[in-house]
């Protein structure tokens, strides 16, 4: 299927600037088998301390045989717009954090050094902005999940240009920028696609397996693109040159991979939301290994890889972050301080060693400082 889409007219959305509210909580991380110490967020703390609110409730988890690590400091930034529902975050080369406010239909900007939050309304009201990514040129791309379109925000002007998609791509979900094109999943329509930003032309590709629900999408070091097929027990690898998709079945028919990340060695780590497992697929031989999540039930959801190679993911059912070390196969748990948060997606700032979290349900953006890299 192929369809051309023209650019919509440029519009200057309303930009909201509000006083920001800051909350900080020092969390004592507990290790399910053993812990790795982590340093505090001294640089960020210095920039935000002037606006600090009283600390929110700290969380601590422990097992009988677990030793605790050095404290992990979690910083939360409360979004001032009423009813904010941050769905996904992204971080630019300058360290600025962007997020989609799905319910209010805004794209938000957080300056971590000052705590200032700015946001811009999407040109199409109630378009349900969902996925978000920052392109190499600094442009901020997002999916209009309920409006069948993609958007690009110019960070210099906070203006947004929309790109309508073919009619069958009514619910674009997650997106990435890869070799100049914008690739995206379309969950309910069982499609994935790419958009040429220069021409506005979009092309969509069907997933062969029915009701596969293409969900998370990430680039791989070898130039391929991987998709979590959430409606099945499969992962998919896309050849960007042809748009062809090869499916990799997981051993358990009940597996439901939701989000994924590809390691430098090419192995694909994924959250099995239905079975409460973290899994890893080696595409070279199709071998799959699985690791039960500490919480049972846990609902593993968003996932990323830290600069030290640890796999971070969220347990949606327990309100905890998990750091899994592939080298030792041990997991560290960190409680999210404000109850009710679900991390649907997260983003790593490798240069500043920060893990950014969209805390859906509590109207906040969270940050975990991942240490200074010494001893790695």
Summarize this, please?
It contains 1 helix and 32 strands. With 376 residues, it is mainly β. The chain has a 5-stranded antiparallel beta sheet, with no helix packed on it.
Number of helices: 1
Shape: globular
User: In angstroms, what is the radius of gyration?
Assistant: 20 Å
Report strand %. Answer: over 45%
Main pleated sheet: 5 strands, antiparallel
Mean pLDDT: 85
The spatial strand order of the largest sheet comes to: 1-17-16-15-14
Strand element count: 32
Structural class: mainly beta
Low-confidence stretches: 1-69
Q: Helical proportion?
A: under 10%
Distance between termini?
47 Å
Architecture overview:
The structure is a single chain. The chain has 376 residues and is an all-beta fold. It has one helix and 32 strands. A five-stranded antiparallel sheet has the order 1-17-16-15-14, with no helix packed on it. The radius of gyration is 20 Å and the shape is globular. The termini are far apart. 51% of the residues are buried.
Topology:
Layout lengths: L1 E3 L10 E4 L2 E7 L2 E2 L10 H7 L23 E7 L7 E6 L5 E5 L4 E5 L6 E5 L7 E6 L5 E5 L4 E6 L4 E6 L7 E7 L2 E6 L4 E5 L5 E6 L7 E6 L5 E5 L4 E5 L6 E5 L7 E6 L5 E5 L4 E6 L4 E6 L7 E6 L5 E5 L4 E6 L4 E6 L6 E8 L4 E7 L3 E6 L7
Antiparallel strand pairs: 1-17, 2-9, 3-5, 4-29, 5-32, 6-7, 7-8, 8-9, 10-11, 11-12, 12-13, 14-15, 15-16, 16-17, 18-19, 19-20, 20-21, 22-23, 23-24, 24-25, 26-27, 27-28, 28-29, 30-31, 31-32
